Amino acid sequence: MENVLRPLLVVGGSVLIALLVGWAADLLLRRAAERHRETPLWEQLRRCRTPLLLVMLGASLRGSFRQIHWHALDGHEDDIGRLLTLVLIGAGAWLVVRIAAAAVETSYAKYAAASHDPARLRRVRTQVSLTMRIVTAVVGVIAAAAMLLTLPGMRSVGTSMLASAGLIGIVAGIAAQSTLGNLFAGFQIAFGDMVRIGDTVVVDGEWGVIDEVTLTFLTVRTWDERRITMPVSYFTSRPFENWSRGGAQMTGTVFFQLDHSAPVDAMRTKLRELLRECPAWDGRDWSLAVTDTTPTTIEVRAVATAKDANDIWSLRVTVREQLIRWLAEHHPYALPRVATAPAPTAAPEKRPRDLLTKDGRIPRAGLG
Fold it and tell me: Per-residue pLDDT tens for 36-92?
């Protein structure tokens, strides 16, 4: 009977202790969140309940599992203790990452509530995202190293690796040159304010919005919902267009190829009417002028402004569609035409054979 009750008491007591500590911590955090609603930290820390329970459970079992005295575990105490240590290290790393994420998200939430600059807010968001990835990577590496050190077979491997750290570092540096380049490029993007999450960019002929930024790659979401993944070193070594840099306001142009008889003044008046009715126009500026001419057509350029890249696209489409429709309905002669009349041909020249008489002789007049 004791062989059954003792394991139940030890395991059940460890589970009960972990649940009580988790319940008490959650209760305190809930009360703190209700008292300080202006600070989201306490609500964010409530997300740490699961890793906290694993830490408490692992610590309780690690300290009390040898009191079970169950014959089935004889000879396996070291393996069980090592397994519980691995669980405890992993749960502790998870808990540290959750606490760091709660602190970082709280700081960002406070900054977002106080800031009214969208560009600066996107920059801070990019830095926060990359900082959390760095913290997660560092904690993960430390946790993995601690787990390896608990395994007896890995200690000698670690010692030999430390002894040859210089050679391994040189080889790894040469082999991972591109990876390290992307890593440092990620730091440069995060803290150099080159590109931010939410920026509108044109990369390699593709127009899109920065959707994700990591230490090694960057994702661009195009207008047709495709995702283009590019190494961050691309943005530090090649030129690209950032339409959100220095403000989101933009100026768009629409070009028309028209006949020389096109009513430019009437088009200018119609453009002003269209812009007043278009919600995408921000009212800052507009113009219409003839910018080029060819023997068959003239080039007319319409210019209008909008508050961001999405509105400038809608504005250009609307102006192009409405002006072409207006010209087709009221001034069809202004649209470019292709001449289809046959070209005049010269009279055919007489060949020497045509100068011969019917009997094949050359007339005397032809002898000159």
Answer: 776 777 777 777 788 888 888 777 777 666 666 555 556 656 677 777 788 888 888
pLDDT range class, residue 271, cuts 50, 70, 90: very high
Instruction: Work out the number of other CB atoms within 10 angstroms of the CB of residue 107.
Output: 14
- The mean predicted confidence, pLDDT, of the chain is 75
Proportion of the chain above pLDDT 70, given as a percent = 69
Which candidate, 218, 183, 186, places its Cα nearest to that of 199? 218
Could you tell me if 44 and 88 are in contact, meaning their C-beta atoms sit under 8 angstroms apart? no
Distance CA 165, CA 156 (A): 14
Residue 277 near residue 295, CB atoms below 8 Å = no
Domains of the chain in start order, with CATH, are 2-114 (no CATH), 152-245 (2.30.30.60), 250-334 (3.30.70.100)
Q: Which residues of 210-247 are buried (b: 16+ CB within 10 A; e: fewer)?
A: beebbbbebbbeeeeeeeeebbbbebbeeeeebbbeee
Order across the sheet with 241-242: list the strands: 227-231, 217-222, 206-213, 200-203, 241-242
- Read off the pLDDT band of 365 (50, 70, 90): very low
Taking 80 as the threshold, does the pLDDT of residue 175 lie above it?
A: no
CB 65 within 8 A of CB 84: yes
**Residues 6+ away with beta carbon under 8 Å from 330:** none
Query: For 288, which DSSP code?
Result: E
d(CA 64, CA 225): 55
Contacts of residue 90, defined as CB under 8 A and 6 or more positions apart, other chains included, come to: 54, 143, 147
Residue 360 in 3-state DSSP? coil
Instruction: Tell me the residue length of the chain.
Output: 368
Question: CA 197 to CA 202: how far, in whole Å?
Answer: 14
Q: Give yes or no for a contact between 119 and 244, defined as CB atoms under 8 angstroms apart.
A: yes
| CA–CA–CA angle 104, 105, 107 (5° rounding) | 65
